[in-house]
Design goal:
Layout (H helix, E strand, L loop, with lengths): L3 H13 L14 H14 L3 E2 L1 E3 L29 H4 L2 H5 L2 H6 L8 E6 L15 E2 L1 E3 L21 E3 L5 E6 L4 H6 L5 E4 L2 H10 L15 E6 L4 E10 L2 E10 L7 H11 L4 E4 L1 E2 L7 H9 L4 H14 L2 E5 L33 E7 L19 E5 L3 E6 L4 E9 L2 E10 L2 E8 H18 L5 H10 L20 H4 L10 E4 L16 E3 L9 E4 L3 E4 L8 E3 L3 E4 L2 E2 L5 E3 L3 E4 L2 E3 L3 E10 L4 E3 L3 E10 L2 E3 L3 E3 L3 E5 L2 E2 L2 E3 L2 E4 L5 E4 L3 E3 L4 E7 L3 E2 L1 E4 L3 E2 L3 E6 L9 E7 L3 E2 L4 E3 L7 E8 L2 E8 L10 H11 L8 H4 L4 H11 L3 H12 L1 H8 L15 E15 L8 E16 L2 E16 L4 E18 L2 E22 L2 E22 L1 E2 L3 E16 L2 E2 L7 E5 L2 E16 ...
Parallel strand pairs: 3-9, 3-12, 4-9, 7-10, 12-14, 14-15, 15-16, 21-23, 22-24, 23-25, 24-26, 25-28, 26-29, 27-30, 28-31, 29-31, 30-32, 31-33, 32-34, 33-35, 33-36, 35-38, 36-39, 37-40, 38-41, 39-42, 40-44, 41-45, 42-46, 44-47, 45-48, 46-49
Antiparallel strand pairs: 1-13, 2-20, 5-6, 7-8, 10-11, 17-20, 18-19, 42-43, 47-51, 50-51, 52-53, 52-68, 53-54, 54-55, 55-56, 56-57, 57-59, 58-59, 59-62, 60-61, 61-64, 62-63, 63-66, 64-65, 66-67, 67-68
Length: about 1100
């Protein structure tokens, strides 16, 4: 059983913190009286902690040393409700477990604490990036206080945030035994208030003790309270004994520390700072509060505090304050204190302010808490009674004593050995850090919101307590993290959401949205969506309209907004409904899905694109001059002065009412094969005007089709003033037919393909194609083309590979001819017998020839290789021989995607005779060619692969005469050569589709004459008598006559109409060159290596050969 004196003393202790100084002056008191009280307070008092101790005799457990996070499971709130979680009942009361299950811990967020110092050496703060600030009075000379002096001529304040304030108590000897029996002893003790507050915000979740609301956050801590020396005695008042505490030596920080504090907080990017302190005696009426807030003596400190938020949007959380005695009822509780109510005077800082009142476990205002009062509009309720958090233990050891030094009082601390524990405290001081920690979670949850917006999320999602709505006791009500993590509950003011980051924590919704707000959002504010992100609203909303500027805004619920949704840019998605809410667009792309509804809501498209696939009931639709409306939904009465394009590709848009198209209106109808088209189905009447624009579906055919694009059950009146079919090829012709209830487009042939041809080959192909039947396969895709496309397509269709192949064979005939003419009578090794003999030889050859083509024909390239063998006999000065061989020629026209592979077989005979220096050589040759051709024809809407096999023959006769000047070691020989080459190709029958060709290449007969000079020079060492190695070369002029180019007469599949196309021509004039080495390996064996080239204005040819011969 408690002694009556003990009860009174306990109450007195609880009250003493708030009774340390005289009350501030009333608003009607003189300024002198106020100044005296202010000086007195500054002389020996300190700002009061707004916590009251409770359950002072409760045992305190030791703190563990682990800092490893003990986490629950994502998405499972119950798994987070551990013993550590339950140690602070405030976490469950505010639904913090739902925030944790959402993946939120406050990691990466920095929060501030301005209090009595925080014991960051407590294990609950280990392992994170906590920081401490130093604050110091600015002295008269501008320097900073370097050493704390509690009283005296040199008194000044200096503090470090991680150094816990020490209070030294002196006991009145006359009452020592009484005070000791009631738990009051002489000596130093820690002011654990700040450590307790910091633990509630950010103590680790490590499986021990308790954990903070934002247990992953980092702290920046500063200390406002100085060390102190107090004298404790007992006084008799009104027949009872009461505790009386007087300050022997103590001081408060000067106003000069506030700019230091906020500069450092903002430099470290602190998002919110906790203030669990206030005035010793708070004003209890609006009159007194306004007097305090406007008084010049407070201007510097209040101005610095306000500027701290203006600089970077720092949120300041203020404990509302505690009462000296029990409140008879919540309604009779005093109003929140001066600092908590600052926006009353500094209105611009209201977005950054939070006042916090204390509720007990019954979720009622604590009987020692002030009410929200004049701070109701920015006030929250939070758990603050019997809150368990971090403290230094009562068994901590402090070696400290006060001493006097030249009239100055100093508390000299020579050693500290704190122990780490947990303790229960009560007050608004304990409620405020729950709110600060909650902000840390929400800063992580909404990285794209600024700090003031996050504060509004916390306010507007609070659970209503007391009278409905915002009231003077609980303000917005009890903060509710379960609801806060789902976005705003109300838009208090016009709100611009700049979404440049995705939501923090775990994603718990479907699709690509960056965030999904599921709350029902009301309020007088307008939502403006900016930034590139995608914001989804899934609740039933009633706020004051929305403006979309950038990114994506999606509405999924029932939205009865008090003003319009305006789309200026970005992408708007409506999957829910707009009820009595206009949708107006001036830009961007808006999509109303199949589930989207405009109920009693008008749609106005003044700009941008609207794809309407839902239903409009009870409203009208207007498309302005700069708007585009499309989709497959159902609209009400519709007036179009801009563009309407039914479907989202091919589709039907229904007008459940009347349709009017104005003079500037455009109906854009997309057409597709099979008579499919966009369509307007009007249940009422349709009044036509303006322009009809037809649009093609890429890669499809329209020739011969009919398209019904509008149907009006109530009849059609008027006609389109203009039609625009410019999106289609001019090779199609469109006509428009009107009926009583609709209109139709008919498509026939337009301009001829030949009108777009620019070369003879193109004109020949186009003329033939123009005559093809529509169903042949080529006319439909060809009439899809535009004139600038036609030329290349006609070239690809021409089949000019076939005539070019004949000329490539003419050019390639020289390899056999040159091999035969290079065998000469009388060629022997030095010193060898020049009599009759038989020779045999084998020659490998290869070459590349290019026919450049011209504006009418494509460049043609041929690569050849082969092997020839021969045998000849010399007798009586004559040499007569025969040859045979095989080889391969690849002809390619890259521009036409065409090529031929030709297998060659050669036979020939030759003869030569020398009469002194004069020599005569000649021969004939015959070649058989097996041609395998392939062509690929591809253009928009058409593709065909074509192939053919056919035979060809080459016949040639040639003769050469020359006269050699010189001897065995060197010589010069002018020569003249004439060759007649004839090539004929058998009939061509390509296999493939509509682009396949049949026909015949004209026979080719070409005469080639060459005049030039050759040289040879023996190469020998000085010790050699004869040259076994000879260098040979020559240069000449070659002229071609007869068939230099060739014509093929071809026809398309299923057509008897032929057209003539040419292949690339050979050069009429060319320079020829040759160079080589010959070596006698033995008196009977010779090796010859050579190069030959031909260089003309329209063609080039390079060849190489190697021949081994033997004479026996």
């Amino acid at each position: 059983m408690n002694h009556p004196l003990h009860s009174r003393l306990t109450l007195a202790v609880a009250s003493s913190l708030l009774l340390a100084t005289a009350s501030p002056a009333m608003a009607n008191e003189s300024l002198d009286a106020w100044q005296q009280q202010r000086q007195l307070q500054a002389a020996w008092a300190q700002p009061a902690s707004t916590a009251s101790t409770a359950n002072l005799s409760a045992p305190v457990s030791s703190a563990a040393t682990s800092s490893t996070s003990i986490l629950g499971n994502p998405g499972d709130a119950a798994s987070w409700r551990s013993d550590e979680f339950n140690a602070d009942w405030g976490l469950a009361a505010t639904n913090a477990d739902h925030a944790y299950a959402r993946g939120l811990t406050g990691t990466g967020i920095r929060l501030g604490v301005f209090d009595s110092g925080t014991g960051l050496d407590h294990p609950e703060f280990s392992g994170k990036n906590h920081r401490s600030l130093r604050l110091a009075d600015v002295l008269a000379d501008g320097s900073l206080c370097g050493r704390e002096v509690l009283a005296g001529p040199d008194a000044c304040f200096v503090s470090d945030g991680d150094q816990v304030a020490i209070d030294y108590t002196l006991i009145d000897p006359a009452y020592k035994n009484l005070l000791n029996r009631n738990g009051f002893f002489e000596g130093p003790s820690y002011n654990v208030h700040g450590t307790h507050v910091s633990g509630t915000i950010a103590a680790n979740r490590d499986g021990n003790g308790m954990h903070g609301v934002a247990f992953g956050a980092d702290l920046t801590v500063a200390r406002l309270f100085a060390n102190s020396v107090n004298y404790l005695t007992v006084v008799e008042r009104d027949g009872g004994l009461y505790l009386d505490s007087k300050s022997v030596a103590g001081l408060g920080a000067s106003d000069s520390v506030f700019p230091q504090l906020y500069a450092q907080l903002n430099e470290q990017h602190v998002r919110a700072v906790n203030h669990s302190w206030g005035l010793t005696n708070e004003p209890d009426t609006a009159e007194k509060l306004d007097f305090y807030l406007s008084h010049p003596d407070l201007a510097d400190s209040l101005g610095a505090i306000a500027e701290g938020s203006r600089a970077r949007g720092l949120i300041q959380v203020w404990a509302a304050g505690n009462t000296d005695s029990v409140n008879p009822s919540p309604e009779q509780a005093p109003i929140a204190g001066m600092y908590a109510s600052m926006p009353r005077a500094f209105t611009d800082i209201e977005p950054y302010w939070l006042a916090v009142v204390n509720v007990n476990q019954a979720l009622e205002l604590s009987n020692r808490s002030m009410r929200c009062g004049l701070a109701a509009n920015w006030c929250l309720a939070a758990p603050g009674s019997n809150i368990n958090s971090t403290v230094y233990g009562k068994d901590s050891v402090i070696d400290a004593s006060p001493r006097e030094d030249n009239g100055n009082v100093i508390l000299e601390v020579s050693g500290q050995a704190p122990t780490y524990a947990y303790g229960n405290l009560s007050g608004t001081s304990m409620a405020a850090p729950h709110v600060t920690g909650a902000l840390g979670l929400l800063f992580e949850r909404f990285p794209y919101l600024d700090s003031a917006q996050v504060r509004d999320v916390l306010l507007t999602t609070a659970r209503d307590l007391g009278a409905p709505g915002i009231d003077e006791i609980y303000g917005w009500g009890l903060m509710d993290l379960r609801k806060a993590i789902e976005g705003y509950g109300s838009l208090r003011v016009d709100t611009n959401v700049v979404m440049n980051q995705k939501a923090g924590g775990l994603k718990v919704w479907e699709g690509d949205a960056w965030d999904d707000w599921t709350n029902d959002i009301g309020g007088p504010g307008k939502l403006t969506k900016s930034g590139i992100g995608w914001l989804r609203l899934s609740g039933d909303n009633s706020f004051n309209g929305a403006v979309l500027r950038e990114g994506t805004l999606e509405l999924n619920g029932a939205n009865t907004l008090t003003s319009a949704v305006e789309v200026q840019g970005g992408q708007f998605l409506l999957n829910g409904s707009l009820v009595s809410t206009a949708l107006t667009t001036t830009g961007g792309v808006s999509t109303v899905s199949a589930s989207g509804v405009l109920k009693d809501s008008n749609l106005t498209v003044n700009g941008g694109v609207v794809s309407f696939n839902g239903t409009q009931t009870g409203g009208t639709t207007t498309v302005g001059a700069n708007g585009l409306l499309k989709g497959i939904g159902t609209l009400g009465n519709t007036h179009v002065d801009g563009t309407i394009a039914p479907g989202n590709s091919i589709g039907t848009l229904t007008i459940n009412g009347n349709y009017v198209q104005g003079a500037t209106g455009v109906y854009a109808a997309e057409l597709a094969p099979g008579g499919r088209s966009d369509q307007l189905h009007v249940t009422g009447s349709a009044t036509l005007g303006g322009t009809l624009v037809a649009l093609p579906e890429p890669g499809t055919y329209y020739l011969g089709e009919q398209f019904n694009f509008i149907r009006a059950d109530g009849g059609v009146s008027g006609q389109f003033a203009k039609t625009d079919f410019s999106a289609f090829s001019p090779f199609l012709q469109f006509s428009l037919a009107y009926a009583a209830n609709g209109a139709r487009i008919d498509v026939a042939r337009g301009a001829s393909l030949a009108s777009a041809a620019t070369t003879p080959n193109q004109r020949a192909v186009a003329t033939s194609a123009d005559g093809l039947a529509i169903n042949q396969g080529l006319p439909k895709p060809l009439t899809q083309l535009f004139p600038q496309q036609v030329g290349g397509v006609l070239d690809g269709l021409s089949g000019e590979l076939h005539p070019a192949t004949a000329l490539a064979l003419v050019e390639g005939s020289r390899y056999v001819r040159d091999a035969a003419l290079s065998r000469r009578a009388g060629t022997t090794a030095p010193g060898a017998d020049a009599g009759d003999a038989t020779g045999a030889w084998v020659q490998a050859l290869g070459g590349n020839s290019k026919l450049d083509g011209n504006s009418n024909t494509a460049r043609t390239e041929a690569n050849s290789n082969g092997l020839l063998v021969g045998i000849d006999r010399e007798f009586s000065g004559w040499q007569v021989g025969v040859l045979a061989g095989t080889g391969r020629t690849d002809v390619k026209q890259q521009e036409r995607r065409a090529k031929s592979k030709i297998d060659n077989t050669h036979f020939g005979a030759y003869a030569s005779h020398n009469w002194g220096g004069f020599g005569l050589r000649g021969g004939v040759a015959w070649s058989k060619h097996e041609v395998k051709s392939t062509r690929d024809v591809a253009f928009a809407g058409f593709s065909d692969s074509l192939s053919a096999r056919y035979d060809a023959r080459t016949r040639q006769a040639f003769i050469e005469a020359g006269y050699r000047f010189g001897g065995p070691e060197a010589g010069l020989e002018p020569y003249l050569q004439v060759a007649r080459v004839e090539v004929d190709l058998k009939r061509i029958n390509e296999r493939g589709g509509a682009a396949s060709l049949q026909g015949k290449v004209d026979d080719t007969a070409t005469t080639i004459a060459t005049a030039g000079v050759r040289f040879d020079k023996g190469l020998k060492a000085s010790f050699q008598q004869d040259s076994w190695l000879h260098l040979r070369g020559g240069v000449g002029y070659r002229r071609a006559s007869g068939d230099r180019s060739q014509v093929a007469n071809l026809a398309f599949a299923n057509s008897s109409s032929t057209f003539a196309v040419q292949g690339a021509p050979i050069a009429d004039n060319a320079v020829v060159a040759e160079l080589g080495l010959s070596a006698w390996l033995t008196p009977r064996q010779q090796l010859e290596l050579g190069y030959s080239g031909q260089f003309g204005s329209e063609s080039r040819d390079h060849g190489a050969n190697a021949r081994w011969s033997v004479r026996f």
